[in-house]
Amino acid sequence: MTESEWVPDVPAATVVPLRDLPGAGGLEVLMLRKNSRLAFGGMWVFPGGRVDAEDVLAGEEATTDGPARRAAVREAMEEAALLLDPATLVPFAHWTPPQDAPRRFVTWFYLAPVVGPVDVVIDMGEIHDHGWLSPADAIARRDLGEYELAPPTWMTLRRLGEAGSVAAALAAARATPIPRYTTQVRLDEGVPTCVWEGDAAWDGGDLSSPGPRHRLAMDPAGWRAEIS
To answer: Which of 150, 165, 182 is the last residue of a domain?
Structure first.
């Protein structure tokens, strides 16, 4: 990539609203479907977007936690009419896209517990649909070709699917160092594969090399996370 082709990093934030499923347990997340004409068009995503100037206080860097929290709360209100308290957000992950991505949104992901009934309102402009889904249901719909998901969204759903409740998900996130995913996309026998630091093939290594795995194989037959 030449200097003239370099795509600048754009600070961004995403919030994952969570609520407990009634009865047997488990949790569900609020997902939104983007207008097909916009960035990430047609994909099912969590509320989020770039960090705006209004989110950054004097003396802060736009890439830090404070501006990202305020951006996440603002976007939740703008995209879903969801009122969140920035103090209740729990950092969940930090994502950096590949160097050759057409848009480089460097994004904080947060969890946000939602208590009580809420009315989600979308504008039918930027957002065209919404729904509360269990992580397993959202992943299954992707596998059936009904939903399009970005890798960070899929990985978030996979992690949350291991939690039995909102409280368990929040406790696990608080007890775990914030995972930081700087993504490389490689081909493994023709299958696009996201590789992250900690993988034996990180930074140009052979994908078949023995050793630890920290990758997502985006096989058309079904995506597979390999984490060891």
So the answer is: 182
Q: 132 Cβ partners below 8 Å, 6+ apart?
A: 19, 28, 29, 30, 31
pLDDT digits (tens, 9 = 90+) for 114-134: 987 889 998 877 788 999 999
Whether residue 165 is found in the same domain as residue 187: no
CA–CA dist 40, 109 (Å, integer):
16
d(CA 33, CA 46): 9
Are 21 and 28 spatial neighbours (Cβ–Cβ below 8 Å)?
Answer: yes
Question: Considering the entire predicted model, what is its pTM?
Answer: 0.93
Total count of domains within the chain: 2
Give the structural domain span for 204. Answer: 183-228
Q: Which helix (H) or strand (E) holds 215?
A: strand 214-217
- Residue 159 sits in the same domain as residue 198: no
Compute, in degrees rounded to 10, the torsion defined by CA atoms 189, 99, 153, 41.
-100
Helix axes 151-160, 135-143, angle to 10 degrees: 140
Q: Are 43 and 33 in contact (CB under 8 A)?
A: yes
Question: How far, rounded to the nearest angstrom, does the alpha carbon of residue 140 sit from its chain's CA centroid?
Answer: 17
